[in-house]
Amino acid sequence: MQKDNNHWQPSLEIDDLHALQPWIRHTGSFIDRLAEHGIIPSIHVLREDWIKPEIWESKLLGLGSHELALVREVRIGNDDQIWLYGRTVIQKAMLTNKNELLHLENRSLGSVLFQDPEIKRDKLEFIYAEPSTLWPGFSPTNASWIRRSLFHLHDASLLLTEIFMPDLTTLCMKN
What we know:
The chain is of the alpha+beta class. It contains six helices and seven strands.
């Protein structure tokens, strides 16, 4: 279990992001943003299981120290590149309110979250860090831009953390 000793920022004020800024600041669906640029990505589910989240994830979601959550990890890209790694930690109560989240398979999380006007997204938080500081054993270990936000439906929540992979910079330069 990893503590979050990182310093998340509520805004992104880094000048050297140039092409990445619109992607990282975008509050809508990452998949829809790709589609706006004529890109159809694949979503590869790496894991979807009931596990004990990291300490910092449990704290953000208000989960008990031994409480399990549904954790879904995906990789978004094409055959040659990975653009985004996403990790979603979902409270059991959120699944009671929105059971479609249990049956996403290779569909995007946004296909549910951004279609329901009752689901509200908190402000984005950003950090530039090595993903392994958040999730031990994460590979690749290169520092990346990472953002997180909570989504709420009634009294239930889920946490979405997204790692913007280096291949996205290449994609942004082309589009």
